Automatic annotation (TrEMBL):
Lineage of origin: Bacteria, Pseudomonadati, Pseudomonadota, Gammaproteobacteria, Vibrionales
Pfam families per UniProt: HTH_1, LysR_substrate
Stated name of the protein: LysR family transcriptional regulator
Highest taxon of source: Bacteria
Every HTH lysR-type domain range: 2-59
Molecular function GO labels: DNA-binding transcription factor activity; transcription cis-regulatory region binding
Length: 287
């Protein structure tokens, strides 16, 4: 039966252009290379090189074998790297529980960095209702969580402030208030408010006499595009949705800020991937 070393020798022969060049590259005698290829042909029962010319060339079967050898060697190296990372204490899987509203461009940037550092760790990103995030972490269903600071202090977990989520008032471009030079906060009461229930804050409550509530971020965006609707909306959502526009309310020159907490379990040994994400999250939601 052929082995990976024989396939590696085949690859060197093809990429170096000749048996002699491959021998020099590998620091072996040419006879050893010729014997390795001959044994590979015997083991596979396939003629890999056409030796009728001065320089052996790949047969059609040899070309197929060469391509598959490249894939197999690449996979073998990936497995070797994966085994090494696992033996070094890198987790096989890591689960993040996060409020959907915190899936910001900055968060995805950190996820991309995570992929580079831990290519063999399977990452699970679960969007969860804000109040359930700490529960999932405490029960071990999630390794780490990111939630908006709430009124009730969660139990059996450790919290850490890692940033702020800027929020402002948004509506569709054709909303009547956009045509006014001056807008008072009280004027919003005359229009239907779209209330996102998974964004906890003292001011994110029933304000208008007409209200629609939703716990889905996509639904929030769609409802805000309807006639005469408005709602408190994260800035990154407004920036990425060309159908929405900020309502500039007098005396409200800056965005409201929601506190973002990192949630981890107490007294639990963390692997390398968890430790990296824990440290990286310190400035993940910087403004």
């Amino acid at each position: 039966m052929f082995n990976l070393q024989q396939l590696e020798t085949l690859i060197f022969c093809v990429e170096c252009g000749s048996f002699s060049a491959a021998a020099r590259k590998l620091g072996k005698a040419q006879s050893a290379i010729s014997t390795a290829i001959a044994n590979l042909e015997i083991d596979t029962g396939v003629e890999i090189f056409d030796r009728s010319t001065r320089i052996p060339t790949l047969t059609p079967h040899g070309k197929r074998l060469y391509i598959q050898s490249l894939n197999l060697l690449s996979q073998a190296k990936d497995i070797e790297t994966m085994i090494h990372s696992f033996s070094a204490g890198v987790e096989d899987t890591l689960t993040i529980a996060i409020n959907e509203i915190l899936l910001t461009p900055a968060f995805y940037k950190v996820v991309n960095e995570f992929y580079q550092h831990f290519p063999h760790t399977e990452l699970h990103i679960n969007t969860v209702e804000n109040q359930e995030i700490s529960v999932q972490v405490s029960k071990g269903k999630a390794s780490i969580g990111f939630m908006l600071c709430g009124d009730i202090l969660p139990k059996d977990v450790e919290l850490g402030l890692v940033g702020y989520l800027p929020v402002t008032i948004a509506a569709a471009h054709n909303h009547p208030l956009h045509s006014q030079k001056s807008i008072q906060l009280q004027e919003l009461k005359s229009f239907r408010q779209i209330l996102f229930t998974n964004m906890h804050s003292p001011w994110n409550t029933h304000f208008s006499s007409s209200v629609t509530t939703t716990n889905n971020l996509n639904t929030l965006q769609s409802l805000l595009q309807l006639d005469q609707c408005w709602g408190f909306t994260p800035n990154h959502i407004i920036q990425n949705n060309t159908s929405l526009k900020v309502i500039d309310v007098d005396s409200e020159e800056k965005s409201w800020l929601l506190h973002i907490d990192r949630v981890v379990g107490k007294n639990k040994n963390a692997g390398q991937a968890h430790a990296w994400l824990y440290q990286r999250s310190v400035n993940m939601f910087e403004m």
